Amino acid sequence: xxxxxxxxxxxxxxxxxxxxNASESTGQTDPYRDEVAVITGSSSGLGAAxxxxxAAKGMKLxxxxxxxxxxxxxxxxxxxxxGKAVAVQVDLADPAQRPRVIDTAMQQFGTVDYLFNNAGYSxxxxxxxxxxxxxxxxxxxxxxxxxxxxxRAIPIMRAQGSGTILNxxxxxxxxxxxxxxxxxxxxxxxLVGLFQVAARExxxxxxxxxxxxxxxxxxxxxxxxxGPLADPTVDRAxxxxxxxxxxxxxxxxxxxxxxxxxxGYVGRxxxx
Length: 272
Description:
Elements: H1 3-26, E1 36-40, H2 45-56, E2 60-65, H3 68-80, E3 85-89, H4 99-109, E4 114-117, H5 132-160, E5 163-168, H6 182-202, E6 207-212, H7 243-253, E7 260-261, H8 265-270
Parallel strand pairs: 1-2, 1-4, 2-3, 4-5, 5-6, 6-7
Helix pairs in contact: 1-2, 2-7, 5-6
């Protein structure tokens, strides 16, 4: 965990009790405290930043990632601080493994209030170079896993009359990407298209659906890219924005009504 994340967690843990008391004294209800949040891709980048904020807000966490140790260690720290969190290892490219994410939430906490569909990676290849098997795997993680987990969460949320599904897309789901990023961008375009419609479908049932489309962030996406154009020795993300900025924006925006939004510097540029 980075120094910035460590500071965020320490501050969050220290502020939890005072914030709860302040809410009680003003008669306001904290929209996040004690809510159950499922976060995929939680071991690094934006997923880790979302987990940090969720823990600071007193949420109960289900952290899902193919790389389990960082999420498992963070969940242990949350529990040591008096919170509730569990980590589950899952390869979201494998449809047979995906049910364990929502199943774990139900077994541990009995419901799902927030689903943060965040996991993803990039596959770098031109259209001519693309291997269809690799492209299908990319869509399994970046698109179909989002669909699968949302489908599993919807009946739970419908039964309780409320719930929020946040899907992390990208600015590349709205604008042309650089050469080699076509299939990655295609997964993000697919998310933007599907979940805008899903927001209309689910609103009458009390379920809110959002699509967050951030720009570049300091994550491991560059080092973990695959494909013929991938170069793990070049960290394209090193100079990009800290993901905690987008995470803060996401928590603010999912209490509002705009379905598609642009957290981080992209949103600030558009508001000028």
